[in-house]
Specification:
The chain is mainly α. The chain is built from 7 helices and 2 strands, in the order ααααααββα.
């Protein structure tokens, strides 16, 4: 198999890491056009998550490195986006574009699961994303995309408030995050050798 094809899934994963500084730059002190550019960059980077797994399975190059690196890249991209959204302030009342308490719960869950993955690795286990984790990730990406759009848009004569819509989807993603985090916890701690 051609080496480039074999490495393509991991290259797509690394792409998500490489775009993070550019994403932060676009949102540091953004104009509306910069916000749209950051949204487009986030969406493109998020789509690579689907394709890296698809290609790895298609070419039969699924690896333990990919299983560990893929969720790490997802977490870093999502956590960066959420932190930047908290740092952005509404023009009218100065409120953050996303409630900080939601971000704290999501970041705490991600750090906890990353710790569980580390514990699992010491026991020779590799944790792949479970169904709840995949739903959580998809909902968070969708919510963040809406929150980044932020501004109301008129679609088919109806004004859509992307900020409110994104906040509600993010709340649903928190439920999936806690559910999948509990699954990971019981799976890992149930298999860990404590002595």
């Amino acid at each position: 198999m051609d080496r480039a094809i074999k490495n393509l899934p991991n290259a797509l994963t690394l792409f998500r890491l490489v775009v993070i500084p550019f994403f932060v730059y676009l949102l540091y002190d953004p104009s509306r056009d910069m916000v749209y550019a950051a949204t487009a960059l986030f969406v493109v980077a998020s789509i690579t998550d689907y394709f890296d797994g698809l290609l790895a399975r298609y070419f039969k190059v699924v690896s333990d490195t990919g299983k560990l690196l893929d969720p790490l890249a997802d977490k870093l991209l999502v956590m960066t986006a959420l932190v930047m959204l908290v740092s952005l302030r509404a023009d009218v009342d100065g409120a953050p574009w996303v409630p900080a308490w939601m971000v704290v719960i999501i970041l705490a869950r991600e750090l906890w699961v990353t710790g569980l993955r580390g514990i699992a690795a010491t026991q020779g286990m590799v944790l792949s994303a479970n169904a709840g984790g995949k739903w959580k990730n998809a909902l968070q990406i969708f919510a963040i995309s809406c929150l980044l759009l932020h501004y109301p848009f008129k679609i088919l004569g109806i004004v859509v408030n992307f900020e409110a819509f994104g906040t509600n989807i993010l709340a649903i993603s928190i439920a999936f995050a806690l559910w999948s985090g509990l699954d990971y916890t019981t799976e890992v701690l149930g298999k860990v050798k404590w002595t």
